[in-house]
């Protein structure tokens, strides 16, 4: 989450079986931890995405000491080992919360506004477009294009005073009771359901560009890119996501299911995301859909180090082959599964 971090930030220890059949616990295993730390010093950090959430490649950029070595396994998608157990960090639930629902007449305005809102240290800034908005039992302005859900779980009184002077949209709800807050969060949590329900079966295409993220100050660029691609390829799109992290989930809508066209859209979208300092996948991972783009994301030299990591843990390449490290186009396989 925006305030509490991703899974990788909240794991303390991992026990797994590597490709050699060895049972390893990190960071307890000093020999393996030292090897990972050694490899981490070889990477070109400038080629890594400048974002708060990233699930592409191996997260060796997170290894700053031996105590961080377990993070190499988090998000590795079963390509380095089979996880047996995980120790998680635990945080107390907040005692109080307040949730603001803000409507905007412009998606670009909403995305730009996130920069100022984020400086007030909210616990969440979430975005939904009209697809979700239409499902909410509330009478919004006919001109409303999107909503931001902004939540605070500390410094509540001061932020209640501060937020109205910062937002460029209209605050339509200031919710303080848990049952009301939870009810509105259910709308946001149902965005995937609403989006899939709204797309006709003949217009559903594989989710390739589904969860890129960019630096927050460039969030509006995601929507400009989508608008350009929709116009060029005669597609439509539904968007929702974790605006505070610059992470937007996209569902493309098109009757044209030609593999070549969908691949072109993915290539052009990912090229622009990478140029913005973003990641091709913030949460869902590379998988079949995006593994062939990992080298483009990180560059040749970092990709060589990724190969070293893979061979160190799985020299026979028996663990989830074709994911993250691949010399073949995997996007077609994703279409076949779809």
Question: Any descriptors?
Answer:
three-stranded antiparallel sheet, six-stranded antiparallel sheet, 3 domains, about 350 residues, single chain, about 15% strand, Alpha-Beta Plaits, alpha+beta, globular
How many beta-strand segments? 9
Q: With helices defined by DSSP (H or I, 4 residues minimum), what is the helix count?
A: 12
Estimate the global geometry from the Cα principal axes: globular
Q: What order do the helices and strands follow?
A: EEHEEHEHEHEHHHEEHHHHH
The name of the CATH topology of the largest domain is Alpha-Beta Plaits
Distance between the termini: 29 Å
Structural class: alpha+beta
CATH architecture name of the largest domain = 2-Layer Sandwich
The parts where pLDDT drops under 50 for at least 5 residues are none
Mean pLDDT: 95
Strand content bin: 15-25%
Q: What value does the Rg take, in angstroms?
A: 21 Å
Main beta sheet, described? 6 strands, antiparallel
CATH class of the largest domain: Alpha Beta
| Widest β-sheet, arrangement of strands | 7-4-6-5-8-9
Tally of structural domains: 3
Please bin the fraction of helical residues: 25-40%
């Amino acid at each position: 989450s925006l305030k509490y971090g991703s899974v990788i930030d909240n794991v303390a220890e991992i026990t797994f079986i590597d490709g050699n059949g060895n049972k390893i616990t990190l960071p307890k295993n000093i020999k393996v931890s030292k090897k990972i730390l050694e490899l981490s010093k070889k990477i070109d950090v400038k080629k890594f995405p400048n974002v708060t959430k990233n699930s592409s490649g191996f997260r060796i950029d997170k290894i700053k000491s031996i105590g961080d070595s377990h993070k190499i396994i988090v998000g590795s998608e079963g390509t380095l080992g089979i996880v047996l157990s995980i120790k998680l960090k635990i945080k107390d639930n907040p005692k109080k919360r307040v949730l603001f629902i803000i409507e905007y007449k412009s998606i670009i305005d909403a995305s730009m506004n996130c920069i100022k809102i984020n400086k007030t240290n909210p616990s969440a800034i979430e975005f939904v477009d009209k697809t979700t908005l239409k499902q909410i039992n509330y009478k919004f302005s006919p001109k409303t294009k999107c909503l931001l859900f902004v939540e605070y779980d500390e410094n509540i009184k001061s932020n209640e005073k501060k937020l109205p002077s910062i937002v460029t949209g209209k605050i339509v709800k200031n919710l303080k009771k848990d049952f009301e807050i939870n009810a509105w969060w259910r709308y946001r949590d149902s965005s995937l359901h609403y989006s899939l329900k709204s797309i006709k079966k003949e217009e559903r295409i594989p989710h390739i560009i589904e969860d890129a993220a960019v630096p927050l100050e460039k969030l509006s660029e995601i929507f400009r890119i989508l608008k350009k691609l929709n116009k060029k390829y005669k597609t439509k799109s539904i968007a929702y996501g974790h605006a505070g992290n610059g992470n937007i989930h996209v569902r493309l809508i098109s009757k044209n299911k030609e593999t070549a066209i969908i691949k072109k859209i993915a290539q052009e979208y990912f090229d622009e995301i990478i140029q913005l300092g973003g990641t091709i996948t913030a949460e869902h991972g590379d998988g079949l859909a995006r593994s062939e783009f990992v080298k483009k994301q990180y560059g040749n030299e970092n990709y060589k180090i990724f190969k070293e990591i893979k061979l160190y843990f799985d020299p026979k390449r028996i663990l989830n082959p074709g994911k993250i490290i691949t010399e073949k186009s995997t996007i077609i396989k994703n279409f076949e599964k779809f």
